[in-house]
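User: Second chain of the day. Same drill as before.
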Amino acid sequence: MTYREPARTAARRSRSPAPASSSAVPTMGITIYECGRDEAVLFRELAPRCGVTPTITDAAVSEANIELAFGNQCISVGHKTHITNATLLALSRAGVRYIATRIIGYNHLDVEYAESVGIFVENVAYSPDSVADYTVR
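Assistant: Same format as last time:
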């Protein structure tokens, strides 16, 4: 399932959005691949605060669904799918310049190849406390 929509503010928001005449944060698009339902809720809730319009899909990134990234310079990926060099090249040609992985490691893609085709890759920070906290919950 794929969702592409302007992010909506959460119902419990305490402040009203900035008026149209103010200098609002510019909107940037991001495609979130391999997005679970729990993550999708958070992306939709937080996106307006960050000036981001998410395109959300539960599908893994591949050459077959690169069109979901068109117009977005950034994508976010999970850890379940190996991202091939062919997919990285297709992402680069689609205009993607940044991949944010929602995991600690990089073993699911070739970072050097990504950089050679103009894509910067970054992962999440590692904290022993966060791993222990996640494991306990």
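Residues 6-23, 133-137 have pLDDT under 50 and may be disordered.

User: Great, on to the next one.
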